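Let's inspect one such protein example.
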Amino acid sequence: MALFGRPTERDEQKAKAHAQWMQERNPFAIAAMVLGVFSLVEFGVLIVFGIGGIVCGVIALRQLSRVNRAAALMARSAQTETGSIGEELPVTYATPELTVGPDASKYESPERTLAPTRGHRLAWGGIALSVISLIFAAILYLQRRGHA
């Protein structure tokens, strides 16, 4: 997407790469990083951003661990059923006259159905930034003021 004029092919490739990057990351991990940066920028004065960053980061890590655990179980079961992952098996049809398989578009949705599997570092980064900013907030709020 060009700022002025027509978008070039390179601009379109960049936009597709950014879109793919975003789709591969857990949205809570991205939110955790954004909230952690906001919280750190304002030194934790608004505690809500720090707490929100930690909560989003924990949610993201739990979702990512669940997705990765499910993927590992599916891979393990696929390996025991077929012998090895990626091994090609012969395709059999109901009748010898039928040489073309079923139309997948009738039975499968075209939307993406897989959950994002990346974002661990974003989530941990958001949690770390949020904790650092909350430490700054604690220092600012709990600091003794001189009374005359």
Notes: Residues 24-85+117-148 form one domain. The chain has a mean pLDDT of 81. Residues 82 and 89 are 8 Å apart (CA to CA). The longest helix spans residues 47-82.
